[in-house]
Amino acid sequence: MRGLVTSTIIEAKKDNLPNALPQAGVAAASYCAQHNLSSIRGCITSGEQWMFFAYKKDGAAAKLAFSEQIDLGSSLENLALVLGLLKDLVQNALVPQQRFFSDV
Fold first, then answer.
1. Do 54 and 65 touch, CB atoms closer than 8 A?
2. What angle do CA 16, 18, 24 make, to 5 degrees?
3. In DSSP terms, which residues pair with 26 in a beta bridge?
4. Which pLDDT score, from 0 to 100, does residue 104 have?
5. SS3 at position 44
6. Contacts with 54 (C-beta within 8 Å, 6 or more apart), sequence order
7. Strands (E), 2-69
8. Is 97 strand, coil or helix?
9. 22-27 CB contacts, 8 Å cutoff, 24+ apart
10. If DSSP codes are grouped into helix, strand and coil, which group holds residue 39?
11. Residue 45, class by beta-carbon neighbours within 10 Å (0-12 exposed, 13-18 middle, 19+ buried)?
12. How confident is the model at residue 39 (pLDDT cuts 50, 70, 90)?
């Protein structure tokens, strides 16, 4: 990878990921405004539960789309999925033309 790669990871209290979505939206909007970006991807995690999100600003409108919560599982059966999503998040953090979720 070359150049600056940016993504956002927000820590949430255990079993409380959906309540961290507003914080994720504000953090993403603030970061985009500070760095003159129109979109950014990130995730919210308690360490055991994960949610991935995409923020996109288009003019005066802004959208925050997010995945369903992914639990690692007692046998870490979803670890490969989370690691794959994290890898993709970092590699494509600033790709504005990429569709992240159907709502963005």
1. yes
2. 110
3. none
4. 41
5. strand
6. 39, 40, 41, 42, 64, 65, 66, 100, 101, 104
7. 8-11, 39-45, 49-58, 61-66
8. coil
9. 24/53, 24/55, 24/64, 24/66, 25/53, 25/55, 25/64
10. strand
11. buried
12. confident
> For the chain, first and last CA: distance in Å?
25
Q: Specify the pLDDT at position 96.
A: 57
- State the Cα–Cα distance between residues 71 and 36, nearest whole angstrom: 33
Residue pair 51/70 in contact (Cβ under 8 Å)? The answer is: yes
Residues 44-76 have pLDDT tens digits of 888 899 999 888 888 889 988 889 999 999 999
Count Cβ neighbours within 10 Å for each residue of 11-23 and write b for 16 or more, e otherwise.
ebeeeebeebbee
Q: Answer whether 45's CB lies under 8 Å from 85's CB.
A: no
Could you tell me if 83 and 35 are in contact, meaning their C-beta atoms sit under 8 angstroms apart? no
pLDDT in tens, 74-99: 999 999 999 999 888 877 766 656 55
